[in-house]
Amino acid sequence: MRTRKLLMGLAGVAMLAGSNFVAPTPAGAQESIFIPMLTYRTGPFAGSGTPIMDGMHDYLTMLNERDGGIGGVMLEIEECETAYNAQKGVECYEGVKDRNPVVINPYSTGITLQLIPKAPVDQIPILSMGYGLSATAVGEAFPWTFNAPATYWSQMSAIIKYIDSQGEGISGQTVGFIYLDVGYGREPIPLLDQLGTDMGFEVVKIPVGVSDMQNQSSHWLQVRREQPDWMIMWGWGAMNPTAIKEAAKVNFPMDRFIGVWWSGGNVDVRPAGDGAIGYLSVNFHGTGTDFPAIQDIIKYVVEPGLSLSDPDVVGDNFYNRGVSNAVAVAEAIRTAQQVTGVSVVTGVEMREGLENFNLTAERLAEIGLEGFMNPMQITCEDHAGAHPVYIQQWDGSAWNRVSDWIEPMSDRVRPMLIAAAEEYLSDKPEWQTQECN
Amino acid sequence: MSDTTLKPSRASMSAGKRNWLVTAALFAAAVVGSLVVGEGSLVYEIFVSPFLFVVEAPDLFVQVIWEGLVAGTLYALLGLGFVLIFKASGVFNFAQGIMVVFGALSLVGFYAAGIPAILSLLLSIAMMYVLAWTVERVVLRPLVNQDPLILFMATIGLTYFLIGFGEFIFGGEPKTMITEEIGLPSGSYSFDFMGGFVSLQKLDIAAAVIAAILVGCLAVFFNKTKVGRALRAVADDHQAALSVGITLRQIWVIVWFAAGIVALTTGIMWGARSDVSFALQIVALKALPVIILGGLTSIPGAIIGGLIIGISEKLAEFYWGPLVGGSIESWVPYFIALGFLWFRPQGLFGEKIIDRI
Fold first, then answer.
1. Could B283 and A215 be called an inter-chain contact, meaning their C-beta atoms sit closer than 8 Å?
2. Phi and psi of A83, rounded to 5°?
3. Which one, A296, B132, B228, B260, has least CB within 10 Å?
């Protein structure tokens, strides 16, 4: 009996010792900067998600391999698969939040909407780069959420500006808006409606349900019936190639069909073959591999076999989208290190870094990305910064830039963003806001 | 024990007729009402305006019907996959959707590995046979005589296995269907029609023709051959079929293989219309209203049900969708199926359930 008790005691001590051994490293002793990535390499949207995740992963890995991380601190990159499912996204977030993640990139508007209220509580900044809730651009109202380089509303205003600059102008024209019927697709509608009224064009909205993403024939017959002068698409995943194929089928002129920057992947246009030639899409960064930083990715990550990406995809539009996101994360970490003097930054310092973010043309040249992006600045007041975008066109094998940088209509968009932010906070009296000087 | 059969009573039969009469009367009243209320009112927009537009633009009407017909043919194929397996084993095969993806991915995957297109097609067919054999061996055989619900749950498990296995083998990124390589046509025929034009995609024509041939072959196979008769015997009564020497296992493999070929065909056709990705399994959900409407046990039901759903959902989305902001295609098929169930609770061609008491 005594022996049994002794053994049990020993086992208990061993278990405690073991649990001590596997306990997570205390925050103070952390030696690397933890960057979780919410990915979707599976599920219906994997086509759009995979190259983005690869681009992001590869740029950060390149910094580790080439420079030994940022400011001498290695980056710990870890993926959590969401399959673009908001519930799984929240589970991923809950799983990583206690490990001092420096920033969360949800990569889904649905997940972002779920995380916005959690971010201030857990003090983890959310960077929804070019997606998410447009109103989070208002920094005073959303201290922990960032959506640079531009909101969906800014982007829509830039598209309308582009259309207005073509030929006879937009007044009196009909603009069709085909969108994925989820939070993401519906996001720019308030602005589109407002601009339609203000600028005198008619808007025809054509929602596409998720179950009909690959079944759009009746939607495009609607387009044939309404005969809009222009079509704008807010699509994602399998919706994009199907829409482009259907547009070609009803003989809609491709050079009058503009996709949001999430509807401009190479995987979106290739299935339509020659039918996609002329299709337009918005962008905010360069494509191709003619940038020293991308060459470094190939040298330090792709060639040694550290990348999950097909080498042919490196430099594709969505791959480079991921790179641009990783650049924003890396430069914000660097800024955070400079501003706070802390080298192993966590969420609190990262928020400082993001609010002082200033990616100048000189800095872009320094990191081997000259001309890759427009200079980008984030301030305490403006977490998106109304940065310019450009229109690119598919020629059958590559994207070509066909417009100058287009400034969004900030004078129209900003007041609407502030109103939307106020509305969001109206029923949340406990919400943590901030004052900006 | 009484041998009385519960047959539909005279009263309930006349209730069916009454349903028709009530519906027709309501519709007539709505049309008359909308004409009285006049243009711009909601009833007018619902009951008069769409029909006026049909007269105004007959080319678009024909085009919508054609698109519905093509979609309907593919829905019929999807529904057929479910019906075949349900008839033979009483299992509602939740994995039918992923089998569509798996078939299409195999074809594209073999081709990408450098195998000629036609050989890839044959290998994909062989792959579907291997799948059917494995399913029988690993999933169905250990669950013989279990409750149908347990078998249904097993097919849910099979779905998740195939998703994971497919992503492991082929990767999650979408692929382009090798349409031209396997001899499917591209381009379209356009012709003028009553002041407008109608455009028929060659691929869609091919899809309709191939689906029709496939359905014809399956109909002949299951109606005229010994295996087909055995299948029907199994469908009627497992025990009785076994007692006359029909091998249940063999029948299951054949039926799952047939459902696999149907899935592969659907995957090729739908993949060519869009892309080949795991999103295709969402399309397979369209088969649910088809089999609700057509009846779970009827092959003609799946075909007619598919066509009815295909055509009516396109008409609904095109003519009535804009009235409620569009995107009604997702739920209209269920609405139509429920409408049919109101008149025929067993589905269009389903077997009447007559219980002995």
1. yes
2. 55, 25
3. B228
